[in-house]
């Protein structure tokens, strides 16, 4: 179920009044959990098997840790289970393909079969048929179940935090299951920590008028980002990246910049909508994006982009590796490793690994520079922002390209500077520029201008009218669902 | 990524902004919130009405809904309001009334006007609107048709097979799907997603959505803004809103072959008639007639003209049965009607559409029917 569809509106229109009525009763958690599973099962009911399995195993691991002196085996069980789920469903085909390529290259006479998980949906369909129910669930595609990377990380963080003694034991299984599957942030984050979200599921949520209005308008902003901006930019980017050989430098460069904004609007739009819905429910989800394209360095960029993921990697990968506590070389090694793993988290393709490597290399090369007084005080802020944006765009080429070969082709063509009409709509440029200026002003001394009631009311009204009049219904999924 | 405290909004914090908020978050006080809601509601109401003043609509002699605006239900509603303002008789129906193969000077309403010697009949036909869609069109967009004389065409082509009747279970796409009932009664071959169904229902209730569709259809070649600007990257979309509607004389696209059916190599066929007591389309037709009468209209039904020459003997027997049942029901309900005899074979362009000469002939045949003259004389 996508936030920007009528189906979700209908779902929420049923869910929310009931939630408001029962939020102070024992029925709150079962209602939240049921709604979350309906929301998730809407894609494919079979996906529920995985989320329930991940939840059960992690909960058992924490119960085991709470009841025995030997915590480590339970943590290992949780990590193995979560990483196996990710490994099988997300990386299985990638590993098999690469092993087969390696075997062929070495001249070895064997190949591994394609991993297939259709048996799960086949089993469910057999069961339905056996029960005389005239219904079939869609085939459980090998392609990874929606949002698995998000809820697996969220659930895993709880077992790690409990092991470390950072969070208390949650005795209520339904509350724990709700924490893992809470529908606003289930499929694309923000990846919440138990220390932030679980306490909010205790007791009666206090929902003020401000929560409802702030949440509602945050949803409108997210909706605008998705349907008016991200989907629009996608229409320019997709055909160019589908066959980059047909385009010249200007179109490829502009498509790359457009993709940078598309993925930002798409992902931050989802997050805004998730946070807005959470807010209306009296739940505060963490900030996930903070004007990333105003970053003045790559370090700054990662403090603004997908904050919940970058802090997750910082807490559970970078710091356990040693962080910056063991000298410069170890620090750089840890940064590179973390970025490579982060790249791989995004998808089982070499393009994502290279994307991570580009960011790692960029960070290694610019970290020392960013610390110099010259860079900090002499280089104009705008120049730093432009430089950072260009590095990020360079990395996006690998992220968006369909193969490493395509990425190189795009970079070669851009470098050739052969000019042809890029045919990018002026309206598109105008919209992106307007957003960039808006964010720039927000972070400048002119900030007060944007806080004027007239400006804010005009912006909200403008967005609603724009969506209602100029946007046709969209069923385009969010980019990050594939991760 | 390093061991530094996360502070994504150093700059905003400097300006005294809550650092947990980003620019995306439109914080409005309750009063501002109310103001935003009121302004939005007013704009939703005012914009379509204001646009009606900007964009002239003149229903003059020989007017019909321009072909390109066939899916523009906001415009249909507006046309109904304009047409219902006078003392004319309104012709409601599908492409047979609209005149698929003919110009505005070859339609049934044109020839009826010619016979009457005045602009007495108004063409409110819509190309491709089958009875299920017609019921929706009249119910949701034809509210202005009240207390008028209305001629409704009953085209039994829509019961000539389960596919036409929409009662087939195999998934099918059909025209004007936004007008058919989305939930009840259930149309078995209609497989829209829940989101599309809810969207269709919302579209009927919110005039702003209909108006937005109107702009898209009338000025952006039925494309959304994104597609339109991608195809014309350097054009100003506001410049396209020139308030000039397409001409009613604009032919369908692609232009239909207006020759008689006999010249097109069409062969006879035997329809798989759906019995009327099982027919979805017939139920919707009945609903349209009842709805119009409930609104105080005097309704006259013209059954046909169907091209019986194109039917095999078995097909003709089936058609006679359908016709008879329709006439029987209309008589039971006390609805004025006539079942004109078939036109000459060469006066049909296909199974149900007459040529221009066919329409002229039909107008003459109607004029000879006492039921029709009584109806017109009322």
Task: Please describe what this structure looks like.
- The complex is a heterodimer of chains A (483) and B (378).
- Chain A is an all-alpha fold and 483 residues long.
- Chain A is built from 21 helices and no strands.
- Chain A has 2 domains: 6-90 and 144-205, no CATH class; 210-482, no CATH class.
- In chain A, helix 3 runs antiparallel to helix 4 (72-89) and helix 14 packs antiparallel against helix 15.
- Chain A starts with 5 loop residues before the first helix and ends in a 13-residue tail after the last helix.
- Chain B has a single domain, classed as SGNH hydrolase (Rossmann fold, 3-Layer(aba) Sandwich).
- Helices cover 43% and strands 6% of the residues of chain B.
- Chain B has 15 helices and 5 strands.
- A 5-stranded parallel sheet of chain B has the order 2-1-3-4-5, with helices on both faces.
- Chain B is globular.
Features:
heterodimer, A: 483 residues, mainly alpha, 2 domains, 21 helices, 69% helix, 0% strand, globular, B: 378 residues, Rossmann fold, five-stranded parallel β-sheet, 5 strands, 43% helix, disordered N terminus
SSE topology:
The complex is a heterodimer of chains A (about 475) and B (about 375).
Chain A: H1 6-22, H2 28-41, H3 47-67, H4 72-89, H5 92-106, H6 118-130, H7 148-164, H8 173-181, H9 194-197, H10 209-242, H11 249-280, H12 298-302, H13 307-321, H14 327-346, H15 350-370, H16 373-378, H17 381-400, H18 404-416, H19 426-442, H20 447-450, H21 453-470
Chain B: H1 10-14, H2 30-54, H3 73-83, E1 89-92, H4 95-98, H5 108-116, E2 121-123, H6 131-141, E3 149-154, H7 162-165, H8 194-205, H9 207-219, H10 225-231, H11 237-240, H12 280-294, E4 298-303, H13 313-333, E5 336-338, H14 356-368, H15 370-377
Parallel strand pairs in B: 1-2, 1-3, 3-4, 4-5
């Amino acid at each position: 179920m996508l936030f920007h569809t009528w189906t979700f509106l209908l779902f929420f229109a049923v869910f929310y009044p009931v939630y408001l009525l029962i939020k102070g009763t024992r029925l709150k958690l079962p209602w939240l959990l049921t709604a979350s599973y309906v929301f998730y099962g809407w894609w494919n009911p079979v996906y529920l098997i995985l989320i329930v399995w991940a939840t059960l195993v992690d909960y058992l691991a924490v119960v085991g840790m709470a009841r025995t002196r030997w915590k480590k085996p339970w943590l290992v069980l949780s990590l193995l289970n979560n990483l196996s789920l990710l490994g099988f469903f997300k990386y299985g085909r990638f590993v098999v393909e690469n092993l087969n390529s390696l075997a062929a290259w070495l001249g070895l006479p064997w190949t591994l079969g394609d991993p297939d998980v259709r048996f799960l949906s086949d089993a469910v369909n057999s069961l339905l048929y056996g029960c005389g129910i005239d219904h079939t669930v869609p085939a459980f595609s090998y392609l990874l179940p929606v949002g698995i990377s998000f809820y697996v990380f969220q659930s895993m963080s709880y077992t790690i935090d409990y092991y470390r003694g950072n969070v208390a034991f949650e005795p209520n299984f339904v509350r724990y299951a709700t924490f893992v599957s809470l529908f606003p942030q289930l499929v694309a984050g923000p990846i919440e920590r138990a220390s932030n979200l679980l306490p909010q599921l205790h007791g009666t949520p206090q929902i003020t008028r401000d929560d409802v209005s702030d949440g509602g308008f945050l949803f409108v902003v997210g909706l605008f980002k998705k349907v008016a901006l991200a989907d629009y930019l996608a229409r320019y980017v997709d055909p160019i990246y589908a066959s980059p050989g047909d385009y010249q430098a200007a179109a490829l460069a502009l498509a790359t910049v457009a993709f940078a904004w598309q993925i930002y609007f798409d992902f931050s739009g989802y997050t805004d909508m998730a946070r807005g819905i959470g807010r209306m429910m009296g739940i505060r989800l963490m900030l996930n994006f903070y004007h990333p394209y105003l970053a003045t360095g790559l370090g700054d960029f990662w403090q603004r982009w997908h904050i919940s993921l970058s802090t997750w990697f910082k807490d559970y990968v970078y710091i356990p590796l040693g962080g910056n506590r063991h000298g410069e070389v170890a620090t750089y090694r840890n940064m590179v490793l973390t970025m490579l793993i982060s790249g791989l988290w995004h998808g089982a393709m070499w393009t994502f690994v290279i994307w991570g490597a580009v960011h790692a290399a960029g960070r290694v090369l610019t970290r020392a520079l960013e610390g110099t007084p010259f860079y900090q005080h002499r280089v104009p802020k705008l120049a730093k922002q432009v430089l950072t944006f260009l590095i990020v765009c360079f990395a996006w080429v690998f992220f968006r390209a369909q193969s490493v070969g395509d990425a190189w082709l795009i970079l070669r063509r851009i470098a050739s500077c052969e000019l042809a009409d890029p045919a990018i709509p002026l309206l598109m440029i105008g919209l992106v520029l307007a957003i960039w200026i808006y964010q720039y002003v927000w972070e400048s001394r002119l900030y007060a201008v944007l806080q004027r009631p007239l400006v804010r009311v005009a912006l909200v009204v403008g967005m609603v009218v724009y969506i209602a009049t100029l946007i046709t219904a969209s069923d385009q999924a969010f980019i990050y669902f594939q991760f | 990524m390093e061991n530094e405290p996360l502070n994504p909004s150093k700059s905003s914090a400097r300006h005294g902004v809550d650092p947990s908020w980003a620019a995306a978050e439109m914080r409005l006080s309750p009063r501002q919130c109310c103001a935003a809601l009121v302004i939005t509601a007013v704009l939703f109401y005012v914009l379509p009405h204001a646009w009606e003043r900007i964009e002239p609509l003149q229903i003059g002699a020989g007017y019909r809904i321009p072909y390109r605006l066939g899916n523009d239900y906001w415009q249909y509603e507006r046309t109904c309001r304009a047409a219902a303002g006078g003392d004319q008789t309104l012709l409601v129906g599908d492409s047979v009334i609209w005149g698929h193969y003919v110009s505005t000077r070859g339609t049934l309403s044109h020839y009826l006007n010619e016979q009457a010697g005045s602009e007495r009949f108004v063409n409110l036909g819509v190309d491709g609107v089958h009875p299920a869609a017609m019921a929706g069109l009249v119910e949701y967009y034809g509210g202005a048709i009240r207390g008028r004389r209305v001629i409704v065409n009953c085209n039994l082509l829509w019961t000539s097979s389960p596919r036409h009747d929409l009662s087939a279970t195999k998934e099918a796409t059909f025209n004007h799907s936004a007008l058919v009932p989305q939930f009840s009664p259930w149309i078995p071959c209609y497989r829209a997603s829940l989101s599309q169904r809810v969207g269709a229902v919302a579209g009927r209730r919110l005039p702003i959505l209909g108006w937005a569709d109107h702009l898209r259809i009338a000025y952006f070649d039925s494309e959304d803004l994104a597609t339109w600007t991608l195809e014309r990257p350097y054009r100003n979309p506001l410049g396209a809103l020139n308030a000039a509607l397409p001409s009613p004389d604009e032919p369908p696209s692609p232009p239909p072959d207006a020759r008689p059916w006999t010249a097109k190599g069409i062969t006879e066929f035997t329809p798989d008639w759906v019995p009327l007591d099982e027919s979805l389309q017939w139920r919707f037709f009945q609903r349209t007639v009842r709805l119009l009468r409930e609104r105080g209209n005097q309704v006259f039904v013209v059954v046909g003209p169907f091209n019986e020459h194109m039917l095999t003997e078995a097909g003709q027997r089936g058609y006679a049965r359908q016709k008879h049942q329709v006439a029987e029901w209309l008589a039971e309900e006390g609805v004025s009607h006539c079942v004109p005899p078939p036109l000459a074979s060469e006066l049909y362009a296909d199974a149900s559409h007459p040529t221009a000469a066919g329409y002229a002939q039909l107008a003459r045949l109607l004029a000879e029917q006492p039921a029709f003259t009584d109806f017109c004389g009322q």
